[in-house]
Amino acid sequence: MIIQFKKPLDQEILTDILASLKQAHHHGVLVENHLVVFDTDTFDFTERQKSAIARLESKQPRYVLSSRAFKPNDTIVKTPHNQIGGHNLTLMAGPCSVENEEMIHRVAAAVKAAGASVLRGGAFKPRTSPYDFQGLGVEGLTYLREAADENGLDVITEVMSVEEIDAVGQYTDIFQIGARNMQNYELLKAVGRTHQPVALKRGLSATIDELLNAAEYIASQGNFNIMLVERGIRSFDGTYTRNVLDVGAVPVLHQLTHFPVIIDPSHATGHADLVTPLAAAGVAAGAQGLLVEVHENPAQALSDAAQQLTPAQFAKLATRAQKIHELDGAIAEEKKAIVKAAVSEDNHESHHSATNPDENHD
Amino acid sequence: MIIQFKKPLDQEILTDILASLKQAHHHGVLVENHLVVFDTDTFDFTERQKSAIARLESKQPRYVLSSRAFKPNDTIVKTPHNQIGGHNLTLMAGPCSVENEEMIHRVAAAVKAAGASVLRGGAFKPRTSPYDFQGLGVEGLTYLREAADENGLDVITEVMSVEEIDAVGQYTDIFQIGARNMQNYELLKAVGRTHQPVALKRGLSATIDELLNAAEYIASQGNFNIMLVERGIRSFDGTYTRNVLDVGAVPVLHQLTHFPVIIDPSHATGHADLVTPLAAAGVAAGAQGLLVEVHENPAQALSDAAQQLTPAQFAKLATRAQKIHELDGAIAEEKKAIVKAAVSEDNHESHHSATNPDENHD
Amino acid sequence: MIIQFKKPLDQEILTDILASLKQAHHHGVLVENHLVVFDTDTFDFTERQKSAIARLESKQPRYVLSSRAFKPNDTIVKTPHNQIGGHNLTLMAGPCSVENEEMIHRVAAAVKAAGASVLRGGAFKPRTSPYDFQGLGVEGLTYLREAADENGLDVITEVMSVEEIDAVGQYTDIFQIGARNMQNYELLKAVGRTHQPVALKRGLSATIDELLNAAEYIASQGNFNIMLVERGIRSFDGTYTRNVLDVGAVPVLHQLTHFPVIIDPSHATGHADLVTPLAAAGVAAGAQGLLVEVHENPAQALSDAAQQLTPAQFAKLATRAQKIHELDGAIAEEKKAIVKAAVSEDNHESHHSATNPDENHD
Amino acid sequence: MIIQFKKPLDQEILTDILASLKQAHHHGVLVENHLVVFDTDTFDFTERQKSAIARLESKQPRYVLSSRAFKPNDTIVKTPHNQIGGHNLTLMAGPCSVENEEMIHRVAAAVKAAGASVLRGGAFKPRTSPYDFQGLGVEGLTYLREAADENGLDVITEVMSVEEIDAVGQYTDIFQIGARNMQNYELLKAVGRTHQPVALKRGLSATIDELLNAAEYIASQGNFNIMLVERGIRSFDGTYTRNVLDVGAVPVLHQLTHFPVIIDPSHATGHADLVTPLAAAGVAAGAQGLLVEVHENPAQALSDAAQQLTPAQFAKLATRAQKIHELDGAIAEEKKAIVKAAVSEDNHESHHSATNPDENHD
Hints:
The structure is a homotetramer. By secondary structure, chain A is of the alpha/beta class.
């Protein structure tokens, strides 16, 4: 059961309610003016207690803050140069790794020209083997930041551990949490505490519910600036694609959560010549952003050589993605219809006026 | 090694070559004017033998007749009302099962109005449990045929066993082979012998190579009228979708094979509200057809109640799919580029003039 | 709901009950003195109707004849030389394919000496590619039969299509249904009609419920001589093993069904040096039989070269499997405990006296 | 290529070799007296350089320190009360979570009596939802330590983040790295630096190579006190078991690595009545330890209620596991045979005398 209190919160009644619930051995979590109670769907409140309650949702949630029930409207994640989510399509592009200063400047200019508004690039790289190239570290971050600033782009880059958050946070606009760290709960809580935008990648065999619970760890620290990234799941046939892009996850997530959904077609396929068709598929399914690996000379790349696009290939991808997205007045309408099916109108209203996490957390 | 002989075939030299190969303990298969030799990449031919050979391909094939190496150009499967494949988008729609005479007539009219040109409907139904509704059988086939004829549509329906092929073949334009029968080799060979169009569904955990080898069983009987259907693969998370649509299979198949690729978004998702986004994704990735379940009153359907669209929902899907497809002058170009990467131009030329399975097998 | 009638069946009351159910639009299947009703858990019977009913099980069954609820005691499949199931451990061994007359005689003698009592060998081979060796056909069957008879062994061999059943049935004691045909429903029904023993292999990505429903297709034709074969399932890592042996399926199946469970460690792993540890694991988990590929000279085999054992390796495997099995007074006890947890004692009693499919269907 | 230097290391020649390799643009990693060079299989050494080299292994390694090529003999992980690995079978048991002081003392006494020599118990719990019980933390660790000491047991407990390592390390003998953290590389390196025993759980969809590379991250910090835990992998059928125990991973790992292999049948199945058969299967396949959840009153457990055994059930499991293990003089022999196939005898000899990571790292 989710109890939504009237604002401003009456602390005295709240304390009274918490005491009543505790006495009945119920377990609850307070998030702003919402009290989430996990082990019951009903409670016999006194009249005085009821007077402080705006709304009661009786469904038992699998996750709370990430759900459409909690926040029916799309979350828009605001960065210096972008509003990610809703009806926008945000293109994020750049090399797998920042390899040196010159290359990242040239790639930044090229992806900007092609329509990207976020620059990606790895400085701390998670590698399966400890002997593989692990990235340039802070040096790479400075190059990445300068290249982005020079071209009016936001930065997205991966953070791999709690210790690195401060350092990485100085240079990036968006923290990327990698697929292997999707359930690294200490890291999730730590980026949650920063209140900075986070792009959370789905784990290789993570269910949709596990992905949304991972987002919940971030949101439970008061950080709603979350976008979810589908980057391919592990399957039985690795002959022609590295992973299988679960394009169905896009409309499923739109039904369940208000957070923006981004597609990473580069890691989903692992082959440059498959990236554009899958990017197109992702946008057609309703994705609100693309995260694409672009390199000046993919064959010479220090990592992910097979899957990076040239700037020219990315420019074509961007054009095609934009065209499909523009068709989708249709998509936007349909998505709204999907959401309406899950959320009742009045709920919409009361909720919107009472708590808007976008406003509260910027 | 694939040996392509000049036409007309010089039977005497052919016999000589076969004898030479046999003497060297090599194993070969003759398909029209192609001899596929599986256990060697080279052979020391005499000058006289060489004089009958148009071209030699030295790569060891995983499959032959299904490959772009064997036939670089797209196969177009011709039916009374359609040319399936190439740059065309063919919409196939209708109920999971033919439930009675009236319903199939009404659905046929509705899907025709919405843009479909093939009517689907199950008469012999493969069901997990022997106690579930197994279809109306031949009675259902007659209704299906009449409803299609009345509306100028082709028929596609499943055939489940060798014994049923004659009966089903009298009523249908396209045999559907279900996912569970993808490696029922006797059935594949038997529909191969009919030379009628076949829609081969990918098995629930079939690899791409297994799918193409299953097509090879059909083609090895001289039947090139094959289309391949991606209908979702089995994965680890069945909470929100029945299967995972492997949209990446579309461009992968376009690289490897000349056969048309169809998407079945209904079985891929199992939920009506996800069918349209996944149909759009499939078309954006380059699919040349859609196979969609449509029912007048899905909630009352005798099978697959959750995943069938209403005629109105299908009409919207059709409009959106067509729009995305029309954008794809871009797709067509790109697909050509993909194919070119795999096939050299001269190969293209010589091959095209020498053997065109479309012409030979109609 | 499963209605168990008193014996002898009162045909008049039965007709009356069927009419009442039909009038209420319920759908039922009569199996011996059991009426399985799929669409309701309760029914308002008249007193006269109740007088003919021995027992009512209100749970909605996913499958009926295959379930412990229908038959609490283990099924023992009787063949000329074996009683498969219950507390017995049956070793089945032989080459992947019968390659010629001499080899199968020598292998038969060797596996007999090592403790096997069933001879396996493929004569009709399902192969992924139509160009691979497809087996010797009927010629292979005659060699297999002679080699088995000479050594006092039963024969198990695969049947791939309805048309082959008569021919194969003349030579074999046990029909093997391959993993690719697990949901070839026409084939299942056809071997069901023979009433001969059938070894049903689990499909590459078949769920336990799908496997049991496939068995149900066979049993629904009155054939209870079924054994279930776990042979590895498809998974995400094919680097070191061809498939993943789902050893947990053994105790799960013992809870759900009365049919014997056999392990095929050869196809599960694909590598000879892993076959023995997995055979041991299967027996330790409670498997009632092993199906193992053995070849005189594995490196020269025409198919499955990598996974066949030499006769000497098989002899070691057999010794170890027998020792683990003998330990398992413990297993037998525990299995009984598992079954008891699922089946109530009185059910046990009444059921046992009323219907014993072993007796009825031999 | 792996270069093994004679001992004591001639620093001057080493410097010279490193310079030569660098000049030729090769990339190497020095581990004790081994230099691992990743990008070439051969090198043209001078005579003087050769004089310092004891042995050259030319195979390109996927991982080094974890491989049998690097260390042919089994690693024995020594703890105060155990020698884990080799021919020993170590039983580790205890509750999912330490819930209070009394319960852990009673469970410790019970599992000790049944044959366990390591006490497990979660104090910091990784939970899918941030709102689930997260463990007692340091308070739980103190109870766990006291209960173990009172009964002469070692402690194993999970560490979830770099920050917790010092605190957890004061109380535990073995760090457990959970499946979700298998590729949390910062955590792996940090436990590597402690040189304390680590039980590394395989990720839900981690390949064998990924598991061994994760171990490599720990070993690369000089910590060889590693055991690998197979705890079930994610698959397509979650109806009857939570995961699928990949029992084939046991002999595969014995071929590839010298580290001990432990089976966790509790998480593999998720159901108490399946734990014992799978524990037996794991031991029969050659596992050197079992990690089993045991609770006084499973139905009342704060987490994992369905899968914990009672002490009485665990006692039976322990007896059966020991019996199967004792049979396995056979197993031990066979494992030796497997290892021999991968490692040449002389390699064995020279290696053993030159570097024994067990001796160096205790």
